[in-house]
Design brief:
Layout: H1 3-17, E1 21-22, H2 23-30, H3 34-50, E2 55-60, E3 63-68, H4 73-76, H5 90-101, E4 105-106, H6 107-114, H7 119-127, E5 131-136, E6 144-148, H8 150-156, E7 170-172, E8 178-180, H9 181-200
Antiparallel strand pairs: 1-3, 2-3, 4-6, 5-6, 7-8
Helix pairs in contact: 2-3, 5-7
Length: about 210
């Protein structure tokens, strides 16, 4: 089969299914090795970019999906039904972030971090298919654990959870309050610089500077 025909089939499959398609699925249908499929898709991605098309192929976990260009979203949302886009509250975003950074976390653990009941928020995220059941924890009561879905990755533009921004380091002080190490180090650094500058300043007649 000609390479252009293979590309045409792959594009048609991605467009028709409307979800990410795994390398294994395409390999089985086209009777090609996974390596060949991946090489062809990568070349398609380059072609789409060079042709400045309104669609692109993105990688989602172990598969690929056809989607519209991010820079055109403002125009697209004026046409499509905006009700399909989840409207997330601050509480929902906080809970979603906790689950994203802590896969297989329980409701009790989420509530410990947030300090409030999270039943309604978790239900809402499940309803929007942004999180899912990740199985039962091997602990008393066998509590349900949660993890983010591929819909979460698509919505926020990530290929995998490994692309999440790195969280700042933190620790608890003597009052059990969170102290961000990065901020603390910057503060100490600024304080040291300030002290060094103060030592270099000489005031006439040994008078202190009035502030």
């Amino acid at each position: 089969m000609e390479i252009e025909k293979i590309k045409q089939i792959i594009e048609s499959i991605m467009f028709a299914v409307g979800r990410d398609v795994s390398i294994q699925e395409l390999s089985s249908v086209l009777e090609l090795t996974p390596e060949n499929i991946q090489e062809i898709i990568e070349s398609m991605k380059v072609e789409f970019d060079e042709q400045k098309r309104g669609i692109e192929i993105i990688k989602v976990n172990n598969g690929y999906q056809l989607c519209s260009k991010k820079e055109n979203y403002d125009y697209i949302y004026q046409i499509i039904d905006k009700r399909n886009k989840p409207n997330l509250s601050q509480a929902a975003l906080e809970t979603l972030a906790i689950i994203a950074y802590n896969p297989r976390i329980t409701r009790a653990e989420i509530e410990t971090i947030r300090g409030v009941n999270s039943d309604g928020t978790i239900y809402k995220l499940l309803e929007h298919n942004l999180i899912e059941d990740a199985g039962r924890l091997d602990a008393p009561g066998r509590p349900t654990t949660y993890k983010t879905t591929e819909e979460f990755l698509r919505l926020f533009g990530y290929t995998s959870l490994e692309e999440l921004p790195e969280l700042p380091k933190y620790k608890l002080d003597e009052n059990k309050q969170i102290v961000i190490d990065d901020i603390l180090e910057d503060s100490k650094s600024n304080e040291n610089n300030s002290n060094e500058n103060d030592e270099e300043i000489e005031y006439p007649n040994n008078e202190e500077k009035n502030i």
